[in-house]
Amino acid sequence: MEVKNINLNDFIKVYDSILDEEVLNNFLNICKNHEYEQARIGKNQIERNIRKTDVWYLDNRMKSLTTVHWYNFLNHTFKNKFTEYMKLFFNNKMDHTVPTIDEIQVLKYEKTYHYKFHTDQSFWTNRQWSGIFFLNDEYKGGDLLFSTPDGTGELRFEKKKNRMVIWPSNFMYPHSVLPVEEGVRYSVVTWAK
Fold this sequence. Notes:
Layout: E1 13-16, H1 21-32, E2 37-38, E3 51-52, E4 54-58, H2 65-89, E5 101-109, E6 114-118, E7 129-134, E8 140-141, E9 144-147, E10 154-157, E11 163-168, E12 175-177, E13 180-182, E14 185-192
Antiparallel strand pairs: 1-11, 2-4, 3-6, 4-5, 5-14, 6-12, 7-11, 7-14, 8-13, 9-10, 9-12
């Protein structure tokens, strides 16, 4: 039996042009005018020295039909991308399996906002795959940065409007968002199981 040398970076995939440009701009305008709250870590903990960002927890139980529409639209879009991602690594044996989206959060990072190194799978969450969708790119800093599990190397992703990055949620993929230096960074994060 041949043993292949596996590079952990091979499991981080980039997808561009996720949404039609007009649709993306409409959603971004809604995000810019929406109210946000301080983002939590885990269930209810707010630690601004670790995760300094504001969040709009998007779901389909809200009173606003606009929010319900965008939740359903993004849920469908992200589910399709996670399915495409899973097929890459499971030799198309997952045709019958549809991932479940765990949560959708719209994030707003203002100047100095950041998120220190962390992983997305925990005692409270059964997340298998993580995704971040960049809504804009007219800001400085705020880069998505991955660290090797042993902390000896880093992988930085170019910010690009309408780009989605997907990776496994487990302990092998610690990642962070570097502080925003100028402008406001808008993104959507989601997880699948």
